[in-house]
Each structure stands twice: as C-alpha cells, then as structure tokens.
Automatic annotation (TrEMBL):
It holds the Pfam family adh_short_C2. It comes from the Eukaryota. The lineage of its organism: Eukaryota, Fungi, Dikarya, Ascomycota, Pezizomycotina. Keywords: NADP, Oxidoreductase. Belongs to the short-chain dehydrogenases/reductases (SDR) family. PROSITE patterns: ADH_SHORT. Coiled coil: none annotated. It comes from Clathrospora elynae. GO terms for molecular function: oxidoreductase activity. This is Bacilysin biosynthesis oxidoreductase bacC.
Amino acid sequence: MDTYTPKPAAILQSPPIDITAPYDAAWVGGKVILITGGASGFGAGFVQNWAQHGATVIVGDINVQKGDALCREINKQSTGKAHFVYCDVTDWQSQVNLFKQAVKLSPHGGIDCVVANAGIAGRDILQEGAHLDAAEPPPPDFKIINVNLTGVLYTTHLACFWLPKNPGSSICSIDSKPSTTSPRDRHLLLLGSVASLGPIAIQPQYCAAKHAVLGLFRTLRVTSGLQGIRVNLLCPYFIDTPIVTAGVRFILAGGAMGKVEDVVDAGTRFVADSRILGRALAVGPRMRVRQKENGEWELVMPGSTTEGSIEAAAFEPYADDWTDQDLWNRNFVQLINMVQAGRGWIGWAQDIVKAILYSVGIGR
C-alpha cells in the first residue's frame, strides 16, 4: 500500500483505517451523542453499546413504544444514560426540537456527536407500470427519499449548527489523543449503505438516496474545515435486522448477511476515535481474507493456508480515492484544465466581462 501523504489543511482526512488496529470503546465515555432512528436495528445496538460505555445518548425515533422501552431498559443497567425524544426526521421542526432537547439533556450543554442513522426501505413504486391504463399518472410516493435523504440533510444542517457550539470542544485533528484528552468532540457520522457504492435494481429510490449520502460525505469532508467537524460514513451491506424483508431474505438465500454487532463495532470505532476524519467503512458478513500486493482482498478458502490473513467484516471502500481517483474522472478534469490553460488570461477576462454584464441583466 502507498505511503500516506498528508493532504492540504482544508481536506479533513486521516490516513486509511487499519481495521486490525485496536481501539478502546471506553473512549465514548462522557460523550453526548444524538442519534436518529435509534429505536431498533443496529441503531438500537449503537445506543446500548455507547450507553454501556458511559455516553449520554439522545435517541430520536418515530416509534415511541420501542424507543421509550429501549431507553428505560438501558437506564436500568448502564453507566451512561439514554433519553428518548420523539422525532419524525422528515419534519424539519421535529428535528429542531430533537436537537434542542438534546442540548437540554446534555450534562455539559452541548452535543459531541450526531449520527444520521434513520432510514427505511420497502416497496419502491417508482418504476411500476400497474397504472399504465390510467388517464393520468398517479403521484409517486417519495417516502423512501424523504426519510433517507431529506431527513439526513436536515440532520446534517442541524449538526453543522450545533456541533461547533459544543462547549469545551475544539477543531478536529488527526493528532487528537482520545485516550488522554477531553471527550469533547465535533463529529457527524452518516449512514450510507452498500447501495451507496453500487446499484440495487429493484430499489431505485433507496439507491438514489444512499448515493446522495455518499456524495454528501465526500463533499463535507472537504468543506467542513471552517467548523472543524470530522465527518465519517458507514456503508452496511444487508444486515440481519427487520429492515431486510422476507422477500429480500429469499433473494439472499445461500449467501450471507452481515451482523448487527459488526456494524456496531465499526460505528463505535468512528465515534470513539477522534483521530479518524473523512473515512468510510463498508460492513458485510464476517470472512477470512488476505490482501494481495495490488491492494485487492481475496477470500481465504477453507483448507488453504491462512498465512497473512485476517478475519474481518469491515473494509474501507474509499481508502485512497484522493490519489487513486476513477481514471475517467481524472482524464475529464485534465481536459477541462487544458481548455482553461489554452484560453489563458484573455479567456478569463472575456468571462469576467460576460459575468458583469449578466449580473446587470444584459445578455440573459
């Protein structure tokens, strides 16, 4: 693997994650964590793990019964605290209320970490032709988009408002020492999916939303330097939770799904280790693998030598994307730069004049 080259200060990115390196989950102790969609699935796993290690977790969810029961049970046995606040992530004011309540419930009056976890899947009618005989097309149901994208954008916008206000926090740094320094943090953890990385044919809305979350992550980690917020991303594969329907389980039969505990472990690494900035982890089934000289992973088959192999469920899909960018993208940018260079200062001056004329209404 290439030697890590430090990036410009505006790009908040730490070295690629060594998934074999240990971290201490106790580093979440004392943090105040806001999580959307934390009442069930691996969201509930996050809440249980973080509260167990001494964090204060504010759980926003639309399911009052599950969310309240989860927090009550956690508070009976954990050193940390879990508080439930009703939240519909598609409702702006509902999310504003969640953040305000989180600040009130915070022991130090601030939020250290925001986890945009809420998401749904389900029957996607975007491409259905059941109404082809209708005189007018019926309006589509964009609930999947509203929860998985609009809700995430609301959460991100509010995180960018409240995280820099966190008392005692400082601008994020790869030189942070999570084992010895204050737990005060400014961290946004986005939840993408394997659908952020590749298509799922029968889920166009879900894929569109999760692709957008990936784009949001890649943009924020470049531009969030002014507020010093570290931004990371989780991309779970199909995980054995209620969001995976019976139909999907039939399709996946014979394969393997990921486990909640592996997603929780990957998410806890991000939340606990304040040195990790601008990184993503894809989480799938636990497997024994070995990395080849070209950086690709290969499965170690039963009965073969295990020398140099590791057992892992998490892998970094964007470990070297600043240097090993898609060849087409790189070539396209080179062409644009060559056009700009060819036009020179004369072309620049012409465009400035056009922009001035456009701004006063001439040439529109």
